[in-house]
Specification:
The chain is α/β, with parallel strands linked by helices. It contains four helices and eight strands. The strands form three sheets. Strands 1-2-3 form a three-stranded parallel β-sheet, covered by helices on one side. A three-stranded parallel β-sheet has the order 4-5-6, with no helix packed on it.
Length: 155
């Protein structure tokens, strides 16, 4: 028989921690993932001490190949809202990442400035928004070419 494991992301604080406690108390084997490894280890020890199965513990950095930085939305697809790239500037990110969150044709200079930040050495790609479209889901290749040319220019 295959063992079932319940995956809880964001398990190092708030609702993630509480959900881990509830699932563990109901006999679930857990896989806990979060940014704060020290808190994950403490939660795993707590669950083990209360008689639960030892959780599988992994920090986010070890659980993915890339990151996507975007604005939060309620549903599927983009919101068009700008992601605050300044949040990334002090971060130490050792994985490739996609930069998203309302990137539009007028952002060329801002993107070029961000690309000079140390954190941007791991920027793999940018995700452009609907302002590059001729109609819903159909990209305007001229706008994309203009953006690419602007990003490549040295001015």
């Amino acid at each position: 028989m295959t063992e079932r494991v319940t995956l809880i992301t964001g398990a190092s604080a708030g609702i993630g921690t509480e959900l881990a406690r509830v699932f563990a108390s109901n006999g679930h084997r857990l896989a806990l993932v979060a940014r704060r490894a020290d808190r994950l280890e403490a939660l795993a020890a707590e669950i083990g001490a209360s008689g639960g199965a030892a959780p599988i513990v992994r920090p986010y950095q070890d659980s993915c190949d890339m990151f996507l930085f975007d604005t939060e939305g309620a549903g599927y697809g983009g919101t068009g809202k700008k992601f605050n790239w300044d949040l990334l500037k002090p971060a130490h990110i050792d994985k490739l990442f996609f930069l998203s969150g309302g990137i539009e044709p007028a952002d060329v200079e801002k993107l070029k400035a961000f690309a000079k930040e140390p954190v941007a050495r791991k920027m793999f790609s940018i995700d452009i928004n609907s302002k590059f479209e001729q109609s819903a889901g159909v990209k305007d290749l001229k706008k994309i070419r203009t953006m690419i040319d602007g990003l490549k220019s040295r001015e």
